[in-house]
What we know:
- By secondary structure, the protein is of the alpha/beta class.
- The chain has a single domain (6-18, 31-89, 106-192), classed as Phosphoglycerate mutase-like (Rossmann fold).
- The chain is built from five helices and six strands.
- A six-stranded mixed sheet has the order 3-2-4-1-5-6.
- α4 packs across α5 (147-158).
Amino acid sequence: xxxxxxxxxLLIRHAVSTATGQLAGRLDVxxxxxxxxxxxxxxxxxxxLLPGPRNLFSSPALRCRQTAEALLPGAAIxxxxxxxxxxxxxxxxxxxxxxxxxxxxxxxxxAAHCPPDGESxxxxxxxxxxxxxxxxxxxxxxxxxxxGVIRAALGLALGNAAQxxxxxxxxxxxxxxxxxxxxxxxxxxxxxxxP
Length: 195
C-alpha cells in the first residue's frame, strides 16, 4: 500500500523514566508520568496538533506504553518492536558518569559507532525507516517512542541520518513529520506537551 501524499506523524518521546542518570536503552523501566493537570494539558495539545482520526503506535517499552495509555486513554495501541530505543549493549544500565569517553567524534563517526554487543545509530535508522513508511501508509498517527528513534526519523527526513544526532529530544515532547509524496517534511521538533 502506498503512503498517502500528505500523512502527518506526531512522534512523542515518552515521559521521564525511573532510570534517571542511567543509560536506559533497552532496559524496560517504567515512566514517571506527569500529574493529572499536566496530562490534561497534553491531551488538549494533542487534539490541536493532530486532530481527527489517527492511529496510535508505541515502542513495546513499558515507559512508552504507559505514556501512550496516559495520553490517549482507551485508544487501541499497536506495538512495533522497530520503535525500541537504540540497543547500547554492555553500556545498558550504566550511570551516565561511568560511560566511556568516545573522544572527539564528528556526527558521521558517532552515528556509525557501535557500543559493545549493541547497535549503532545507523542500525537504528535502518530499522526505523520501514516502520515509519508503514505507519504513514495507514494515515495520520501518533507514535510514542524514544529520543533515539525520533532523532533517526529526523535524520531520515533531512536525507542524512547522522544529522539526526544534532537534535535534543526532551522527555514528554512532540515532533511532527509529514509525508509528502515520497519525501518527509519536518513541521516542528521538541515541543513540550506540558510544563
